[in-house]
Design goal:
- Helices cover 50% and strands 13% of the residues.
- It has 24 helices and twelve strands.
- Strands 1-2-3-6-5-4 form a six-stranded antiparallel β-barrel.
- A hairpin with a 5-residue loop joins strand 4 and strand 5.
- Helix 9 runs antiparallel to helix 10, helix 15 runs antiparallel to helix 16 and helix 16 packs antiparallel against helix 17.
């Protein structure tokens, strides 16, 4: 018994000495450690735990499992102050760590990361959360060091830790943080683990984080990527994933972080352009003004304004437009951009605006300048051709020449990328009565599409084939159209008409009767069927009745046929 008392006395004497010899850095370092409380959507406590600050701006780290499913969180500092978690800055579920930012009242005490990684056999401490100046440090050593991703380390410790020490900092004898304590394998485990602080410090939001399941499981607002270009991509990615008000918050954060980047002002103007109310108009104009002021290249600001207003105008009637957001202002802005720099993309927008204003000659001129720029492409020549086609008094040969230029961007055998231009050139030639040339383009279009065409295509091609007396090809095409859409009365009527022209009366009658069975009001089918039947005395009466039916339905040609063939 006496021996036991001596041992107990010795134990308290050792602890007292250790408390007296507590490192000088502890008193300051303990202020960097905090308690974490997370809440669910009903504002009820979800989890509690620990964490610590890693910079003086309120950035801290803790274990991810505390935050999973959390809608709100706050930290309690060593001084007893409650500070809300404002942003999630990164998370990793595999290593159970999260990086976040809290509100701060002043410059925050934080733990300085060790200049060198921990080594096997090195003495370490666990610095617990405490509201008292007196801190009970747990002391141990590093038993094993493993390398993990991002050039970081994972430590196995020769010490036993409790649940209350999870997410507390692992520090060296100088008070520099080496890692963050992780969950043990079990309560009785004699080994403990710590994740290298550099891994946690390196957690970031990137351009693709919007779809990250780990981050999405935390319902607290996420921060922006710290890299400006990544943040810009993030804005683009999140535009379709967030509710409008949430997206507006991100835009405001972006502008705060990158006040000289015009993308934030442009996107904020875009946001308010679809909103109602007088304030929305002011917000749009203010943000467009801010964008113009921060833009290093003023022509880009003019271009962005022109594009925004042009996009707003498309599909709206004049009386639906707000403020002076109209095509005239869009044109003025893009002309201002072109007065500074003659870029192809500016000419394209100028052409688009003229086209929307139905000023096709001007649009064609803009597109032709686009064709002569570094941005020349098959699409540029197509746009020029389309505008030229719609210009009153234009030469159809010039339209075809522009489409010929579009096709110079492709080589035979043609692929799907060239298909739209082949079809358009075929259509233009068809309209110009260049039927054989049109059929060649239609055939090349068919090959480019690898035969994956619509029934309507077969109908269009057969019409051109009939004009240049390619009768068998025309029959094959109309049969294919009917095969694809057997209940289309229009196609059956067209089939009947082809057979009449080729004097294939039996086939014509069969197709026309089926067309009428599908559409009882198909005047053309009644007229053609009547024409086939009235020439035969055996079907004369039936044919006359069908012509009269066509006449009732408003077919004037049927009236002439009745007069001609009436006995």
């Amino acid at each position: 018994m006496k021996k036991t008392l001596i041992l107990i006395a010795s134990f308290f004497t050792f602890n007292g000495l250790f408390a007296q010899e507590m490192p000088k850095w502890v008193k300051k370092a303990r202020k960097a450690v905090f308690s974490v409380i997370t809440y669910n959507e009903d504002n009820k406590i979800l989890n509690t735990g620990n964490g610590f600050y890693i910079d003086d701006k309120g950035v801290g780290i803790s274990d991810y499992s505390l935050f999973k499913g959390a809608h709100k969180a706050s930290v309690i500092t060593a001084d007893g102050k409650e500070l809300p978690v404002t942003l999630i800055l990164g998370a990793d579920d595999m290593y159970d760590v999260v990086r976040f930012k809290t509100a701060i009242e002043k410059k925050q005490e934080f733990l300085i990361p060790a200049s060198t990684k921990g080594e096997k056999g090195q003495a370490v401490y666990i610095l617990p959360y405490s509201t008292q100046n007196s801190v009970n440090l747990s002391k141990g050593s590093i038993m094993k060091v493993d390398s993990i991703s991002n050039n970081s380390s994972y430590y196995t410790l020769d010490m036993k830790t409790a649940m209350k020490e999870v997410s507390c900092p692992l520090v060296n004898t100088n008070g520099e943080v080496i890692g963050i304590i992780q969950h043990n394998a079990g309560e009785e485990a004699t080994e403990s683990y710590a994740l290298g602080v550099d891994f946690a410090k390196g957690l970031q939001i990137n351009a693709l984080s919007g779809s990250d399941a780990t981050l999405k499981s935390i319902k607290i607002k996420k921060g922006l990527p710290e890299d400006e270009s990544q943040a810009q991509v993030f804005l683009y990615m999140m535009a379709s994933q967030l509710e409008p008000k949430e997206y507006l918050e991100i835009l405001n954060d972006f502008i705060t972080m990158f006040p000289n980047n015009m993308e934030g002002y442009l996107r904020k103007a875009t946001y308010y352009m679809t909103e109602e109310g007088e304030n929305s108009v002011k917000e749009v104009e203010n943000n467009l003004k801010e964008m113009a002021e921060v833009a290093e290249k003023k022509e880009e600001a003019h271009y962005n304004t022109a594009k925004l207003i042009y996009s707003y105008c498309i599909g709206k009637k004049k009386e639906e437009l707000k403020a002076d957001w109209n095509l005239d202002r869009a044109l003025k802005e893009i002309n201002s951009a072109l007065s500074i720099a003659q870029e192809g993309i500016y000419y394209q927008l100028q052409g688009d605006i003229y086209f929307a204003m139905q000023k096709y000659a001007e649009a064609s001129a803009s597109y032709e300048k686009l064709c002569k720029s570094a941005m020349t492409s098959a699409e540029a020549y197509y746009l020029a051709a389309k505008a030229k086609e719609l210009t009153e008094g234009s030469d159809i040969k010039e339209v075809i020449a522009l489409l010929d230029s579009a096709m110079t961007f492709y080589k035979e055998p043609y692929g799907k990328e060239s298909a739209p231009y082949l079809y358009e050139r075929g259509r233009i030639k068809d309209n110009a009565k260049m039927y054989r040339e049109a059929v060649i383009d239609y055939n090349n279009f068919y090959d480019a599409m690898m035969g994956q065409v619509s029934a309507e295509f077969y109908l269009i091609r057969q019409a051109a084939e009939m004009q240049c007396r390619m009768y068998q090809q025309a029959i094959n095409d109309i049969n294919k159209a009917v095969e694809m859409e057997p209940n289309n009365a229009e196609y059956l009527s067209e089939k009947g008409g082809i057979h009449i022209r080729l004097n294939q009366i039996e086939e014509a009658v069969s197709a026309l009767k089926k067309a009428i069975s599908i559409d009882k009001n198909n005047a053309g089918a009644y007229r053609m069927l009547g024409y086939c039947q009235i020439k035969d005395k055996n079907t004369y009466k039936e044919g006359l009745d069908n012509l009269k039916k066509a006449e009732e339905l408003g077919d004037k040609v049927a009236t002439d046929l009745i007069k001609k063939y009436s006995k």
